[in-house]
Write a structure and sequence with these properties.
Helix 3 crosses helix 4. This protein starts with 8 loop residues before the first strand and ends with a helix. The chain has a domain of about 250 residues: Rossmann fold, CATH 3.40.50.720. The longest helix is centred in the N-terminal third of the chain and has 24 residues. The protein has a 7-stranded parallel β-sheet, with helices on both faces. The protein has a two-stranded parallel sheet with strand order 6-15. The chain is α/β, with parallel strands linked by helices.
């Protein structure tokens, strides 16, 4: 585990999100609440920026823990799409003067966003954060910056994907992927003049012990599809997923280790720990049977057949219709792609041997959490967070 220096001020975007909230909790835990955090947060119609931070941290550290965390977090109300991040001159230059580490995690991660909107948030937002880093450097103290990209900047390409590979002239599965590839290209263009590191997580799933995922998207939809009894089959299909605490450890290591400057790291399961779709579905069925005694009936069909079986969508219940629509937009294209093998040798060196869990452990994590909480409608308490912290439990 990397030592986190206490004399830094961390400027973090996206802390109301899945990754950002975990990162904040981990950062405060690892520094015993002594890290100073400046957080850029959008207020919503119903809640102030401060209330939104409390709401984001509560499931991880409890209500009192979230209130305590505010002692270490200075919240600035802003928006990455706005000039000067939507901050007043005073706020902006205050951030530029104080930030010694910048973690840019804010983004739109919607798979069905229009390209113009994705670029507005993901590319232009990143440009404004890079401007901030440059302004801070001009004040005489160049901050470190970690940009949170995605392993899927590789678009529809398959085969071995090196962390140094990046090309926007290739087919992408959706506008999200393209906008993230463009943003990463922008970040790389500043690598010679700023202290930058890019990290590329794959699919981020729940915490490796409590299982808490915040949202039931991505892999959790696949689990629902299996529950519906028809398995879209893909002999090639692989799923590369990593628990959120593995990703936050990767981000913190990238921020603090001088060897990470100017480099890009995959935060992925890697070839030997990817889930094969062929294994995933039967393993989920077996675990459901073991936990509930219920034997899910299933029929293996191609991804195209799967969709055509549900063509008359008006006949479906609204919940099932929603899942089919999500599968159509999120999964069908990925299951039909050639397998990707994300190369993560350099990450293993950076993380000194810390690895994501084995595939069967990840299946247990996802299946267990979904069943025990009935997809989050009956959430387990997460007070265990403070006792069994992620960095302690990851095995080398
Ligand atoms: N989740 C994954 O599986 C995954 C995988 C690979 C890479 N990533 C990358 O990891 C990062 C974090 O993802 P996540 O899963 O934590 O996403 P998330 O839960 O949707 O959180 C996104 C965060 O970005 C903030 N944000 C969006 N637009 C903003 C704006 N205009 N100004 C300021 N803040 C804004 C959101 O604030 P609001 O609460 O105000 O909306 C939220 O805090 C992203 O860069 C994503 O591309 C995620």
């Amino acid at each position: 585990m990397h030592h986190l220096p206490l004399d830094h001020t961390w400027f973090v975007t996206g802390i109301t999100g899945f990754l950002g909230s975990y990162l904040t909790a981990e950062l405060l835990w690892r520094t015993d609440g002594r890290a100073r955090i400046l957080a850029l947060v959008r207020p919503s119609k119903r809640a102030s920026a401060c209330e939104r931070v409390i709401e984001a941290l509560e499931p991880l550290v409890g209500h009192q823990g979230a209130l305590d965390a505010l002692q270490s977090i200075d919240i600035v109300s802003g928006d990455v799409t706005k000039p000067q991040l939507g901050l007043t001159d005073r706020e902006y230059w205050h951030v530029a003067e104080r930030a010694s580490i910048i973690i840019h995690a804010a983004a739109s991660i919607s798979f069905d966003i229009e390209l113009a909107d994705a670029r507005h948030i993901n590319v232009e937002g990143t440009r404004r954060i890079l401007d901030l880093a440059r302004h801070a450097a001009e004040l005489g103290h160049a901050p470190r910056m970690v940009y949170v990209s995605t392993a899927y900047v590789s678009g529809a390409s398959g085969g071995v994907i090196q962390a140094k590979d990046l090309c926007v002239e290739r087919p992408f599965t959706n506008a999200y992927e393209r906008s993230k590839a463009e943003a990463e290209t922008l970040v790389r263009s500043h690598m010679s003049d700023l202290s930058l590191t890019v990290v590329r997580p794959s699919i981020v799933i729940g915490d490796s012990v409590t299982g808490y995922p915040k949202e039931f998207s991505t892999l959790y939809y696949a689990f629902r599809i299996i529950h519906h009894g028809l398995l879209p089959y893909s002999p090639e299909g692989h799923i590369d997923c990593v628990p959120v605490d593995y990703v936050t450890q990767g981000i913190l290591a990238a921020a603090c280790d001088p060897r990470a400057i100017g480099r890009t790291f995959h935060l992925t399961a890697g070839s030997d720990r990817q889930l094969r779709w062929e294994q995933f579905a039967p393993a989920v069925i077996e675990r459901v049977a073991r936990r509930t005694g219920k034997q899910l009936k299933h029929e293996v069909v191609s991804a195209e057949d799967y969709l055509s079986r549900f063509e008359d969508r008006h006949q479906l219940s609204s919940r099932r219709r929603f899942v089919v629509e999500q599968f159509r937009s999120l999964y069908a294209p990925y299951l039909m792609q050639q397998t990707k093998h994300f190369q993560d040798d350099e990450t293993r060196i950076l993380l000194a041997g810390i690895r994501p869990p084995e595939p069967h452990e990840m299946i247990d994590l996802v299946a267990g959490y979904c069943m025990e909480t009935r997809w989050g409608s009956d959430p387990r308490g997460h007070s265990a967070w403070g006792e069994v912290l992620p960095s302690r439990r990851m095995c080398a």
